[in-house]
Design brief:
The complex is a heterodimer of chains A (411) and B (168).
Chain A: H1 5-19, H2 29-36, H3 40-85, H4 92-97, E1 102-104, E2 107-109, H5 114-117, H6 120-149, H7 152-164, H8 173-181, H9 183-189, H10 196-209, H11 213-222, H12 227-248, H13 268-303, H14 305-319, H15 328-333, H16 338-346, H17 352-364, H18 369-378, H19 380-408
Antiparallel strand pairs in A: 1-2
Helix pairs in contact in A: 3-6, 6-8, 6-11, 6-13, 8-9, 9-18, 10-12, 10-19, 11-16, 12-17, 16-17, 17-19
Chain B: H1 11-43, E1 47-49, E2 52-54, H2 58-79, H3 85-113, H4 126-131, H5 139-147, H6 149-162
Antiparallel strand pairs in B: 1-2
Helix pairs in contact in B: 1-2, 1-5, 1-6, 2-3, 3-5
């Protein structure tokens, strides 16, 4: 059957009358609040408040489980039990799996806590379960709530102008925030960016300047009073080096269009699925590397590789970065396990500023092995480029932080 | 739109006189507390008076104080012509900021009150648990009950909206 033009319009009218509801749109309070959170004048204070809430809850929750229960469970029960039942005290397998210990007055002495024992079954398990699990769980829970409420697209719009200065756009906030939980999904999420230039800049900045949940958890545990300064240095570095990369790397950085949804009540089932999926993903992909990293660090310590490299690189660490010679070992070990390196640094005697410098260096150092593998998946050329940028950044930014400290008279 | 009038019987106009005065005063108090937070943090000294204790660490006093200060400004900005939905949204947002800061403080109290401490038992004693909630409190916690008043006005406005009342 063929309809004429008039008949077609009549049909359209009849269908629309039956299917479309007409009415006057009323601007509700929810709409008005939604608009307020996008306008810079009101949206930025709200973003500052939400990020405050995010980190405050993160610190309280992680501290509750880690300091309140896991530290005691691992240090007072798990470590002494393993030290007693694992055979071959003082041997290389014992050192790698349970406790590397220390030498005092020529005698082998067992460690008193899991952060100093550096065994796969002690430090490795403590970091994975006692520190990272609570941190990752609360981090992804908060992120899922913000996503489900509909706040993340608003944050993307708010931060869009700022991120354009470094060749990215508002969506780059997604991989950045995901990386604060674990760099692995962060690197995967760079695929939402359109051009190669944007993906390269994002991946490089994530690998260098965004500390993962494991590292943040350890920092929160061992150097809580310096967290603010360390994160400030990392944020400043993120924008300085992003700006430089944007100028240096050829390619396009297009605008983005985003549909900002209305605020919604979060759905428990959605949040549960997201959190479980992400935590499971972390444990399946990243956790084996945490344990493997512990084992390799242990082997390298036993073989004297880390001591050798530390001695070799000590003049650079002392002269250029302004940190004590003893930090050379942990900084070399950070190549494999950043979280354990932070724990090692916390027991070395140094000034506050040296501690800030050392922890920032650990953060901007080589990405963890799991991130390294993910970056390799994105392309060998990109990985080599990112590593070249990383080497230059560590050297320049580490030196710059030392210089700032000298100018301020604190280094 | 700012300055748009509403009908004399609308919920917005019924509440405006009392609400404007209330939220203006709350705005002044909140802004003052926010400034006090920032000044105490900048000075590095400690301040406690009666049930009030102003935190002086960079996170709670500095960052949190800034948020309290912003909440005060939102109250003050929104209290003018509160009948307009956009102005009222600012007042509601001011309260939400206070809830975030106070909620975080209360959550921190809860998480600190349950474990028994490094040398003690696994769980806190009942006395220790209750003591954790004793004053002094941070400014945001003291402002919390006063900020909850906004819920009454939100409900009033929402019921007005469902009856086909105000819209701007």
């Amino acid at each position: 059957m063929k309809l004429g033009v008039e008949e077609r319009w009549d049909l359209i009218d009849r269908i629309s009358k039956e299917t479309v509801t007409f009415g006057v749109y009323r601007h509700t309070l929810k709409d008005a609040i939604g608009e307020l959170t996008i306008k810079p004048m009101t949206g930025i204070p709200v973003a500052i408040a939400i990020l405050y809430g995010f980190w405050s809850v993160f610190g309280s929750f992680a501290g509750f489980f880690t300091d309140g229960f896991f530290v005691r469970l691992f240090d007072a029960y798990w470590l002494p039990w393993l030290q007693a039942v694992f055979p071959g005290e003082g041997g290389w397998l014992y050192a790698i799996m349970v406790d590397a210990g220390g030498i005092e007055s020529g005698e082998f002495v067992l460690s008193s806590n899991c952060l100093e024992s550096f065994g796969v079954l002690t430090s490795g398990l403590f970091v994975a379960i006692g520190v990272v699990l609570p941190a990752i769980l609360i981090f992804y829970l908060m992120l899922a709530i913000l996503e489900d409420i509909g706040y993340m697209p608003r944050l993307a719009v708010l931060i869009d102008t700022m991120l354009h200065k470094i060749g990215l756009h508002g969506y780059a906030i997604v991989p950045t925030i995901l990386s604060l939980g674990c760099n692995v999904p962060g690197v995967t999420a760079t695929r939402i960016l359109e051009t190669k230039k944007q993906r390269f800049i994002m991946m490089t900045l994530l690998a260098i300047f965004i500390p993962c949940g494991a590292q943040i958890g350890i920092m929160q545990d061992v150097v809580p009073d310096l967290m603010g300064w360390i994160l400030l240095y990392l944020i400043i570095g993120y924008f300085i080096f992003g700006y430089i990369l944007n100028k240096v790397i050829p390619g396009r950085a297009p605008e983005f269009l985003i549909d900002v949804p209305p605020y919604r009540r979060p759905m428990l089932s959605n949040i549960g699925k997201k959190v479980l999926g992400r935590v499971k993903g972390f444990f399946m992909v990243a956790l084996p590397f945490v344990m493997l990293g512990c084992a390799i660090v242990g082997v390298f310590y036993q073989l004297g590789v880390i001591r050798f490299l530390g001695d070799l690189l000590a003049p650079i660490f002392v002269g250029w970065f302004g940190v004590p010679a003893e930090t050379a070992g942990p900084l070399v070990a950070a190549f494999l396990r950043k979280d354990l390196a932070v724990a090692q640094l916390s027991v070395i005697e140094m000034t506050k500023y040296q501690m800030i410098t050392a922890v920032v260096l650990v953060s901007i150092y080589f990405p963890c092995v799991a991130t390294f593998v993910m970056m390799l998946k994105e392309g060998l050329k990109e990985l080599i480029g990112a590593l070249a940028v990383l080497a230059v950044t560590v050297f320049l930014y580490g030196g710059l932080i030392h210089l700032i400290g000298k100018l301020l008279g604190v280094a | 739109m700012a300055g748009q009038s509403t009908s004399p019987t609308s919920p917005a106009s019924q509440t405006s006189a009392v609400a404007v005065i209330y939220f203006a005063i709350l705005g002044i108090a909140t802004t003052a507390f926010g400034l006090a937070d920032l000044m105490v943090t900048a000075s590095g000294s400690e301040f406690a008076y009666g049930i009030l204790e102003i935190p002086n660490d960079i996170f709670r006093g500095g960052w949190g104080g800034l948020v309290v200060f912003f909440a005060g400004l939102l109250y003050l900005s929104g209290a003018r012509n509160m009948g307009d939905i956009h102005q009222f949204a600012k007042v509601a947002m001011g309260s939400i900021l206070i809830w975030i800061i106070a909620g975080c403080d209360i959550f921190a109290m809860i998480t600190e009150s349950i474990p028994g401490g490094e040398e003690g038992p696994w769980f806190n004693t009942l006395t220790g648990f209750i003591e954790a909630y004793a004053p002094p409190y941070a400014p945001a916690v003291l402002l919390l009950p006063f900020s909850l008043v906004v819920i009454y006005y939100v409900r009033k406005r929402v019921s007005g909206e469902t009856r086909g009342g105000t819209s701007s």
